[in-house]
Amino acid sequence: MILRTENIVKQYASHLALDDVSIEVPQASIYGLLGPNGAGKTTLIRIINQITAPDSGKVFFDGHELCKNDVYSIGYLPEERGLYKKMKVGEQAMYFARLKGLSKNDAEKCLRTWFEKFEILAWWNKKVEELSKGMAQKVQFIVTILHKPKLLIFDEPFSGFDPINVNLLKTEILNLKKEGSTIIFSTHNMSSVEETCDYITLINKSKNVLSGQIDEIRHNYGDNIFEIDYLGETEKLKENLGENYRILNDGEQKFFRKIIIKATAKESGNALLARIIKDVEIVNFNQIIPSMNDIFIKLVEADK
Amino acid sequence: MKKILLVIEREFITRVKKKSFIILTLLVPLLFAGLMLVPTFILQIKSDDDKTIAVLDHSGLIAKDLINVGTIKFVNETASVDLLKNSLTEGNNYALLYIEKGDGNTIGDITIYSENAIGMDILNIVTSQIRSLAVQLNFKKYDIPAEQIAQILYPHLHIKTIRLDEQGVEKESNTIVLTGLSIICGILILLIITIFGVQIMRGVIEEKSSRIVEIIISSIRPVELMLGKIIGVALVVLTQIVIWIIFFGAILLIAQSQFPDIIHQIQSYTQDVAVVKMIICFVLYLIFGYLLYASMYAIVGSAADNEMDTQQLQLIITLPLIIGCLIMNNVVIQPDSPLAFWSSMIPFISPMVMLTRIPFGVPVWEIILSLTLLIATFILFTWIAARIYRVGILMYGKKATLKELIKWLKYKQ
Q1: I need a labelling partner for A200 at 20 to 30 A (CA). Which of A25, B279, B326, B396 fits?
Q2: Which domain range does residue B67 map to?
Q3: Residue A93, pLDDT score
Q4: How many domains does chain B have?
Q5: Co-location of B143 and B286 in the same domain
Q6: Min distance A272 CA to chain B CA atoms (Å)
């Protein structure tokens, strides 16, 4: 575990921002922090960054309780991208890099490499106010990861990017993971969660409502819906399914026949196969696993 | 510690590189120099050119007594008026003074012809000469002893104002110069405090509203960020002043070689002002006055999301400045009044009030006491500002009131 929070509580004047939130972030993983607007994600991120302190609860980083010096091991990209508008891109990147503890020479060398990689070297002497939102975000992304921190925290990293740059960013995030960094990011973009995250935590109404490995969660939240393509007689198949299954969609009767069914009682895919395999020939068998999007909506709606 | 230097460097360099800074730095001394020197310079240029005024005096009373003044030369003519008018249009003379003969032995109508409109200064010289000649003619006519009349009308008086310094040495003082000097110093301090204080406030708001602060806070303590900003801007102020002083020095040196008379005149006005004491006090009061107000402006910036929200709190800061200004006016009239003494001890207004008093002479112990109070208050306010600032810069979405600021002050880390 590179990061662990224990029973974090944060009370703002009028509302409880975090209520007993515990998360565990394994080393070299990508960790998604999900939740509707105002759930408390950003507050949690700010506590990890020591921008604000929790009222109670503890944060452990790399085996010890989080302390002031850990900020150098954490890179943070806030949701609202902060750059000095009137400053030149290069100067500004140098400033932040040096604040993070890089020497002048190292900072310049590293920055030039990254700027080249992101194809923004030509903007070195441009003022930030001349850049588009996406361009400025690239600059910020570079500044955040430049000092190669152990832990990277991105608040909504993909918002404001076009699809090409979203891919560029995803690739870089995956590369960082390969190099051993741990990444936490908060997002509303569920497809990016499925593509990149290993673990997630869903925060809703200040509480941690769901935590764990992403595949496991999706499997557990499956509604036991199966899609079967087969050759053989539909009637026989239905007979074999018996009372345990409800037919959701009796698909088109072409050469392959398709049926979508839902188990009324929990039963494994293997048991289902055993029921039907003797009378029809199975061409395609597929358990429908819910997307993170579905799980998100289901959990948040249920809590209303 | 290294980090705070980075912040100072950034604040300093971005501000010094700004066009507005460069323009202000160059423009102010040039403007002053212009105001001082250009009029005299223009006079000098003019003086190269002699202006001949042809005089045609039919009365025969004036022309012989006209005296050439500076560049103005009078030349007696006897030709006809029309001829002289013609030669005027040919550009030979600057003007033609035509004096007609009156009834008996008197001066008739006087006309001045010129191709271009005649200059005010020349007209004054010509008319005053003619008038005084006419007065003398009248004295003679009525047989009045002219010298006695002059003595009665213009008694020879010389009123001096003399000030005794601590050693009892007499010094001639020039109240008008002193008043002007003290008001300029007071206003300069007021201007610098507000201009650069507002810059601090804007800087804080920019960092807060753009969330830059969230990135910086993860590498540096809020107090360091705030102090870095305040010190960075202070260095900008100092740089500007040093450049101005150098500029003025250079201009004075150049002026001394070009127009020694004028400089000598200025020196005679300011000789009894302790220039060195004045400059030292100016710099000290400016720095600590600025630091005190800078921390207050930092508080206001940290409490707001945008500049619109700051008006109410800014008013609290401007209020003592305005009061200081009002007192300044009073102090100039009565530099030794109890009001002057006490208000130059109150830290929020002492930079302005004390600077106004110094040209009139202030005991050293008063200056030391007032400075000590100012520095103590500045330290106290910086401490308060740091505590409010660290909470304020991370609070969004609401306009903080004074009550809330006091609550933030009590927050534990």
Answers
A1: B396
A2: 50-153
A3: 92
A4: 2
A5: no
A6: 54
pLDDT digits over B347-373, tens only?
999 998 888 888 777 888 999 999 999
Q: What share of chain B is helix, strand, coil (3-state, %, to 5)?
A: 70, 10, 20
- Asked whether the predicted pLDDT for residue B175 surpasses 80, the reply is no
Contact B219 A82 (CB under 8 A): no
- From chain A, pick out residues whose CB is under 8 angstroms from the CB of B225: none
**Cβ–Cβ below 8 Å for A79 and B211:** yes
Looking at the complex, report in whole angstroms how far the Cα of residue B242 sits from the nearest Cα belonging to chain A: 26
Q: Mean of the pLDDT values across residues A257-262?
A: 86
Facing B220 at nearest CB: one of A74, A83, A99: A99
**Domain presence at residue B2:** no
Domains of chain A: 3-219 (3.40.50.300), 223-288 (3.30.70.1150)
Q: How far is B360 from chain A (nearest CA, A)?
A: 45
Within this chain, do residues B203 and B59 fall inside the same structural domain, yes or no? no
Domain for residue B144, yes or no?
Answer: yes
Tens digits of residue pLDDT in A282-298: 888 888 888 888 888 88
Cα–Cα distance between B34 and A47 in angstroms, integer? 59
Q: Are residues B268 and B197 in the same domain?
A: yes
**CATH value at residue B63:** 3.40.190.10
Handedness of CA B247, B253, B259, B263 (dihedral sign): positive
pTM value is 0.71
Whether the CB-CB separation of A272 and A263 falls below 8 Å is answered with yes
Contact B14 A76 (CB under 8 A): no
Percentage helix, strand, coil for chain A under 3-state DSSP, each rounded to 5: 40, 30, 30
For testing contact with chain B, the best of A99, A103, A127 (most B CBs within 10 A): A99
